Amino acid sequence: MLRDKNLIPLSHQHQHALALCVRIERATPIAEVDLAAWRAEIAQIFRSEIQIHFAAEEQVLFPAARRYAELVPLVEELLSDHEWLRSQFAVATTQAMTAEAVHALATRLSAHIRKEERQLFEQLQERFSAEEMASTGHKLDESLKNSEQACILPTPATRLKSAR
């Protein structure tokens, strides 16, 4: 299904995070010498975009989705993911994250994004009226206004590696 224009800002941010996940996957196993650069990039993307993205979803999108009883279990799963992901981003910020934990974060973040895109967004587009979608989009735009609008450029240590 074509993504509704009101959800595209979230989808663009999902693409940024998925790019990070792909680079982590390709870098795995992450060399000890590169680990600090990965931790720093993960912490930076969390501060500049993901924490604002999570807040927008939790304050705007998820409450709107909860109006539909059949979406409540999915919203609860997504909130649980947010909680786990936040805890891992906090670990990255302290520079205590292991290479295995970096990979686990990328795996869980990628699955979470795909769940939002393929399940939540699709179902919202089926259920929301044009007016509900426009209202939600306006609120999302307001919530996302302080997030970065461009991808973070990788460092030489975190640059996309060719597929093995």
N- and C-termini, Cα separation: 32 Å
Total beta strands: 0
Share of helix, binned: over 70%
Fold-level CATH name: Four Helix Bundle (Hemerythrin (Met), subunit A)
Structural classification: mainly alpha
Can you count the helices? 5
Radius of gyration: 16 Å
> Which regions have little confidence, pLDDT < 50, spanning 5+ residues?
none
Question: Oligomer, anyone?
Answer: single chain
Strand percentage lies at under 5%
Helices and strands in order, then pairings?
Elements (H helix, E strand, L loop, with lengths): L7 H20 L4 H34 L6 H22 L5 H29 L2 H15 L20
Question: TL;DR of this structure?
Answer:
The chain is mostly helical. The protein has helices at residues 8-27, 32-65, 72-93, 99-127, 130-144.
If you had to describe this structure to a student in words, what would you say it looks like?
Helix 3 packs antiparallel against helix 4. The two termini are 32 Å apart. The chain is built from 5 helices and no strands. The model has no long low-confidence stretch (mean pLDDT 94). It is 73% helix and 0% strand. It has a single domain (8-144), classed as Four Helix Bundle (Hemerythrin (Met), subunit A) (Up-down Bundle). The chain has helices spanning 8-27, 32-65, 72-93, 99-127, 130-144. It is elongated and about 50 Å long. With 164 residues, the protein is an all-alpha fold.
